[in-house]
User: What shape does this take?
Amino acid sequence: MPELGRAALIVCLGLAVYAVGAGSYAAWRRRGRLAESAENAILASFAAALVASVVLLSALLQHDFGFVYVYEHSSLELPQAYTISAFWGGQEGSLLLWLLILTGFSTAAVLLARRSSRSLLAWTVPVLGAVIVFFSLLLVAVSSPFATQPAPADGLGLNPSLQNPYMLAHPPMLYLGFVGLTIPFAFAMGALIARRTDELWIVVTRRWTLIAWTFLGFGQLLGAHWAYVEVGWGGYFAWDPVENAALMPWLAATAFLHSVMIQEKRGMLKIWNVLLVVGAFALALFGTFLTRSGILSSIHSFTEGSIGPWFLGFIGVVVAGSAALIVSRLPLLRAKTKLESPVSREATFLYNNLLLVAFCLTILWGVVYPILTEALRGEPVTVGPPYYNFFLKAFGLPLLLLMGIGPLIAWRRASLRGLGRTFLWPLGIAVAAGLVLLALGAGSSIPGLVGYTFCAFVLASIALEFARGTRARRALSGGSWFGGLAELVSRNRRRYGGYVVHASIVLLAVGVIGSSAYDTTREQRLGPGQSMAVGDYTLTYRGATRERGVNAMETRALVDVERGGERLGTMRPGKNNYFAEQQVSNEAAIRSDRLNGEDLFLIAEQIERDGVFLKVLVKPLVNLIWIAGFVFLGGALIALWPDAREQRRLALRYGGREALSRA
Amino acid sequence: MSVELVLGGLLAAAVVVFVAVPFLRAGEAPQPDEPAPDALAAAEARDRALAELKELEFDHRTGKITDEDYRALVQPLRRRAASTLSNGATLSGRTPEHAPEQHFSDV
Assistant: This one.
């Protein structure tokens, strides 16, 4: 069925070109029917992308090696789940996934915003169409997933690193995040082109940004867990360029989600917010470029393609076009109000934004610098973890502190007396926690001790916010503590959902600090019956096994584990030798302690007939990182949940259209 | 003629019809929704003033603002909120008595 797939992509391209042309003319000449027709073209482009995706997926499931893509990324022995994930395992398939999600999100955005404000949607449709044109053009002319060949008997298989359950969810999740940032960008550009001075675009897009940001954040944590359990080096984040590529747009979107509140509440930072929306989208494109262009070496960069110059050109057009538009609309974007005090809630948001953007830019420089040095000097200069870790501490610790300070300060301005009253408890708890940790030996890492003290401060400040808010709510409407809390959260979902997200960041920080500042690593060669001690654990090597798996030969070292004289079981680190792919992968063995969140992590670096080279890591509190992912998701869902009161307010403001609230 | 060719043709025909639907429909063409900028600006100013008042009340109740600070801040905000309410009501055609009720019920 390759012809059907190709035809569907050509139809998608044609529809997107029509959406740009007809949509622009309709918006310019105010032609209602033509505008609706352009919107329909966006909806139809989703159907076309869906047909193309179904063709590729069915070719994968039928092992139709006549498709070059199917031959290069799957094999007869590949388990069915990974045959499905091979859809996004290569460049062409992942671009098709981009297009599918892009047209799907665009369709949802058009349908939801259709009745709320056609004048805003009018110029948004051509912008969405232009992005769809770029991706469908790439798939039609540059990197087609429907190239054919005489069918070989078997395929080359899938990269072993991608043969992991996390790969079923992690890439689509990241793509949902990357692509989701297109929608706020399109609405922002649409509003600027239409010279809209009101904040309707902010109302419409903040929820889209929150959705994209949630997917991107959760997707990164899934990726970190994949790296932890699959790549087999004992870590979860290595400041790899592709990991950074996902982090940068997330940081920009995080800054936007905070600064947009200042625009809503005080009418300030309009230019800044537009810049953040454009920046987040451009960084999402840059991330896809890094992953798919093959311009740099990364464990996550699974393909080397010819699409790099196309992406660079498109990023250039997006940045230059957006910059020109913003400059031309500067008079409309100037704020009429100003910051009243450097000690206020909005000021802390501003500081938070400056730190987030500074951190994002330092990461960007670390990613771009090797590319630039290679282009200019002929050899790349590697920027390693020490560079990023320095800036993580320099910007991350103040950001952590601001998460605790922000909620305690009032809007507009705060007096010293008021500050003293609200800071008393969180500061006291933080100092007490720091002293207790120092007594327990946490002083072996000063950044770790400072980080934990800040974490205690933030958690105390969040708990205090919930307690004081619930008390105030009960004073107004009575009822139980639980009822007061539920009412408090349901009346201020964005605020309290945000606090839950802050709590998840604290959990993440506790896990990261524990597993990086207080971890233990030991490497040793063990013969059969020999033991080694690491932390509280005693490990004894018993021998090796070799078994044929579904699509790989699996070699495992058998290691007995004891702690305090109690036998905890046998761990089996080893290696898989994949038949079709002709590659070897490290298969780490991990034992998690649910009581203290600690992991015992074993890597069999080399298994020989008479022994094993074993690398052992003890990682305290590392499991809090994964728990943080679920807390993050819970907080994001609270913030995203529709609020009937807000819907009523917005309907009243924008002319009684109930549909607006759903946008 | 292959099945794929037919399916591709059907897809193309279906999307052409779908895109052309607005031109085939009888009746008035849908008009772009053009909000009056002044009324919208007034509505946003009104909502912002009311939200600030609400935040101030909440910050005071939760102890973030002292009684002294509250007294200094609340009067100017109330005046501004009242002024934006009457201004917004004039521009939107609603009675000034009606709009505040709807807002304060949410605050």
User: Anything to note?
Assistant: Strands of chain A lie at 520-526, 531-534, 537-548, 552-563, 566-571, 574-578, 583-587, 589-593, 598-608, 611-619.
